[in-house]
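Moderator note: this is an archived Q&A kept for reference. The question asked for a predicted structure of one protein chain; the sequence and the answer are reproduced below.
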Amino acid sequence: MHKPTPRPEPHTYTAPDPETALKYAIQHIKGDRTEIIEGVIEPVSPSWGRVKAARVIRRQLDEAVERLGCIEGAGNLDLPGSSNWYVPDLAVVPEKLADESALVPSQTLLVVEVTSDSNAETDRVVKRRRYAEYGAPLYLLVDRQERSCTLFSLPGELGYTRVDGPHPFGVPVRLPAPFDLELDTAKLA
């Protein structure tokens, strides 16, 4: 008589609150990168246009990123105390923090979001407000629908207090210290 193989005990996870449970769950979705935007789970599925725009920016940042001892990429950003978990198109962070599973926006030097038809208003309004609230020092919005770039800086609880733009694609955008460089936006067009 064949004896059935015992089933392993199911994995149990106890979270102290719903925010922690939700953020734990999305980090364990296999094969997909996922964001939580104001409590709504959104899969991250960048179009080729978004990938191209992020690459154009990334290549121009390479020298400064190296000089600053940083890395750039599309890692997880947690917004503790809220139901938000973002995966920006590009962020620059100190290399010493690169082993963390998630960082908070204030640990970045720059966050870049590239709009698409499905997320443009989220990047323009919601993420801009949240990145400021959570202290991201620089937020570059590459708006593919409006064909413009806007740099937001000096974050505070009520939003960014300095706005440089929108600049039409083709007009350089100056990134202040610690980058001290001008981004050529002509290739974004």
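Archived answer notes: The mean pLDDT is 89.
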